[in-house]
């Protein structure tokens, strides 16, 4: 074994045999004569101090950037489901960095499974300004307002996108005072003159919408003088379904014998001048290749019989070979009851006054003369008087037009019932032309 030698200078024990000396450790090499245990303690202490300092610095740097997230539980829950709409509310944002949140506020579709569409909004906030938008796209609970706006900080850029162009304003709707009218024009009942009155009423109520009525006053003879407010202005085709629904339906009726006499002597409504193509052979009469038809023959032609019942019961053009039945007559009676207004040609002027009262348009300064019926030539008037004086001919005319006679009586009752609401108008009634039943007045 090696021998130990003692030095009086430092009392250190030295080994005389070097190969038996313990090997040097990292602490011995690093800290020299401080010893092994002391070196480790010094290094550990320095590490602890370093960690403490780093922790303090980290806390100081993180504190200004913290944001908080609150769950907004104030919004109403959908019945049967939990509130699944956390709302992110950013606080003061650091000029250096912000945190990133996942927006899971989108509502789930009932029965559509889990919410599979979380929206990630990782953003870097500018050191100058941030902009907050309210997200109103989420669905509202039926019957309640959306109480959960989502705040999303966005990044302002150097060049903002241009603002969208404003939507052009729509034109204002038509006037609420507009009164559309469905007019069923029975031939030779004063309907052409009444059309002129209706055009003036439409012009008075809404001149902007009914400019065609204002610029082209008078009769509604053809499409060039059509008035948008008046349905059925230019033809004799009834639309029965319109009678029982808006707009109000109006018609004029006439005592059947007088109506037939007027039609026979007026162009277009008899075989002598057939404007409606009633029968092919009638063309020969117009060309002078066949003899003219006289009134006794005229009333026996089924196409010209009971046309008021045919129009209102069968919905047919007046001059068609449609056989009248009890069922058709019953429908015609329903139509007369369904009209908003029924006037009678025998009291034409009074009918126009009554119509203005019923439409509540006031007393308008409208000429109400029945123009066409007063334009007969002297010879035509003599021929009409001759027919009226023939009692047998009149009796036969009433017989073959029995359906129209009964329907006209019903129309008179409708007229008189409306007239009875205005005593001043009832006093004007000429009872020699129109006799109101006692029950209607």
From TrEMBL:
Q: Which residues cross the membrane?
A: 46-66
GO molecular function list:
sulfotransferase activity
Asked if the Swiss-Prot or TrEMBL record annotates the protein with the keyword Ribonucleoprotein, the reply is: no
Provide the residue span(s) of the region labelled Disordered.
Answer: 1-25, 72-174
Pfam families registered for this protein in UniProt: Sulfotransfer_2
Where on the tree of life does the source sit, at the highest rank? Eukaryota
Alphabetized, the UniProt keywords read: Membrane, Transmembrane, Transmembrane helix
Q: Where is the composition biased (Low complexity)?
A: 85-100, 117-132
Gene Ontology cellular component list: membrane
The Polar residues compositionally biased stretches are 8-19, 148-158
Q: Does the keyword Iron apply?
A: no
Recorded hits in SUPFAM superfamilies, A to Z, give: P-loop containing nucleoside triphosphate hydrolases
The record, for PANTHER family, names:
COUNTIN RECEPTOR CNR3-RELATED, SULFOTRANSFERASE DOMAIN-CONTAINING PROTEIN
Q: What is this protein called?
A: Sulfotransferase
Source organism of the structure: Triparma columacea
């Amino acid at each position: 074994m090696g021998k130990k030698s003692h030095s009086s200078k430092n009392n250190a024990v030295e080994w005389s045999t070097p190969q038996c000396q313990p090997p040097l450790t990292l602490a011995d090499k690093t800290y020299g004569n401080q010893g092994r245990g002391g070196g480790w303690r010094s290094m550990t202490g320095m590490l602890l101090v370093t960690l403490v300092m780093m922790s303090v610095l980290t806390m100081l740097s993180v504190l200004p950037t913290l944001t908080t997230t609150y769950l907004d539980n104030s919004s109403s829950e959908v019945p049967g489901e939990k509130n699944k709409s956390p709302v992110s509310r950013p606080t003061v944002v650091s000029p250096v960095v912000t945190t990133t949140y996942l927006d899971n506020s989108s509502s789930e579709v009932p029965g559509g499974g889990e919410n599979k569409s979380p929206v990630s909004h990782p953003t870097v906030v500018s050191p100058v300004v941030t902009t907050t938008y309210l997200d109103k796209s989420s669905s509202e609970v039926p019957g309640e307002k959306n109480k959960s706006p989502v705040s999303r900080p966005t990044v302002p850029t150097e060049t903002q996108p241009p603002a969208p162009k404003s939507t052009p304003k729509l034109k204002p709707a038509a006037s609420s005072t507009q009164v559309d009218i469905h007019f069923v024009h029975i031939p030779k009942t004063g309907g052409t003159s009444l059309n002129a009155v209706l055009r003036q009423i439409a012009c008075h109520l809404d001149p902007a919408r009914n400019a065609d009525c204002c610029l082209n006053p008078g009769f509604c003879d053809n499409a060039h003088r059509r008035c948008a407010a008046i349905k059925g202005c230019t033809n004799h085709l009834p639309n029965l379904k319109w009678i029982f629904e808006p707009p109000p339906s109006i018609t004029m009726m006439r005592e059947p014998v007088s109506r037939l006499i007027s039609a026979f002597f007026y162009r277009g409504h008899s075989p002598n001048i057939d404007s409606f193509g009633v029968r092919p052979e009638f063309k020969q009469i117009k060309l002078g290749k066949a003899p003219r038809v006289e009134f006794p023959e005229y009333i026996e032609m089924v196409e010209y019989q009971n046309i008021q019942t045919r129009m209102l019961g069968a919905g047919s053009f007046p001059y068609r070979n449609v056989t009248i039945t009890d069922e058709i007559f019953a429908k015609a009676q329903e139509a007369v009851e369904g009209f908003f207004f029924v006037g009678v040609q025998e009291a034409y002027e009074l009918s126009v006054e009554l119509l203005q009262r019923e439409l509540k348009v006031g007393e308008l300064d409208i000429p109400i003369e029945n123009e066409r019926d007063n334009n007969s030539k002297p010879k035509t008037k003599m021929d009409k008087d001759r027919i009226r004086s023939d009692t047998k001919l009149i009796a036969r005319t009433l017989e073959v037009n029995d359906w129209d006679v009964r329907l006209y009586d019903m129309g008179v009752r409708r007229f008189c019932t409306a007239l009875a609401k205005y005593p001043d108008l009832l006093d004007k009634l000429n009872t020699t032309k129109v006799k109101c039943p006692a029950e209607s007045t």
